[in-house]
Amino acid sequence: MVEQLSSKERKIISLIPENGIFYPEFYELYRKVYPSGIRDRMLRYYLERLAKYGLITMERKGVGGSYFIRLNVPRKLFAGKVL
After folding, report:
1. Which candidate, 55, 29, 27, places its Cα nearest to that of 40?
2. Is residue 83's pLDDT more than 60?
3. How confident is the model over 25-45, as pLDDT tens digits?
4. 8 Å CB contact between 26 and 69
5. Domain-wise residue ranges, the chain
6. pLDDT, tens digit, for every residue of 56-75?
7. What angle do CA 53, 49, 80 make, to 5 degrees?
8. How far apart are CA 29 and CA 25, in angstroms?
9. 21 with 68: CB under 8 angstroms?
10. What is the pLDDT of residue 43?
């Protein structure tokens, strides 16, 4: 499954910490690492695709109802792959 991911999806997965992250913080991190990368709406689109694949979980948490993003697969699975 990992081999079939696009380069953008692999970049996104590589930034998600194992213990999870809230979407606003993740978006800031993504923009720092890839300043000319995709924008907010497209990033959410890719995250939703990864959730459909079962690679991540997105659930609403907190006061503002921000998405909390968590990896569903161990980081070891991606160790041999170029992310």
Report:
1. 27
2. no
3. 999 999 999 998 889 999 999
4. yes
5. 2-74
6. 999 988 777 789 999 998 77
7. 60
8. 6
9. yes
10. 95
Quickly count: other Cβ atoms within 10 Å of residue 21's Cβ.
19
* Chain position carrying tokens 């109802």: 65
Q: Domain 2-74 class? A: mainly alpha
Q: Indicate the average pLDDT of the chain.
A: 87
41 token code pair: 């709406």
3-state secondary structure of 63: coil
Identify any residues that bridge with 59 across adjacent strands, giving them in sequence order. 68
Determine the residue type at 55.
L
Cβ atoms of 48 and 55 closer than 8 Å: no
Structure tokens at 54: 């079962």
Q: Which distant-in-sequence residues (6+ apart) come within 8 Å of 38 by Cβ?
A: 8, 46
User: If you search the block for the tokens 């800031």, which residue do you land on?
Assistant: 28
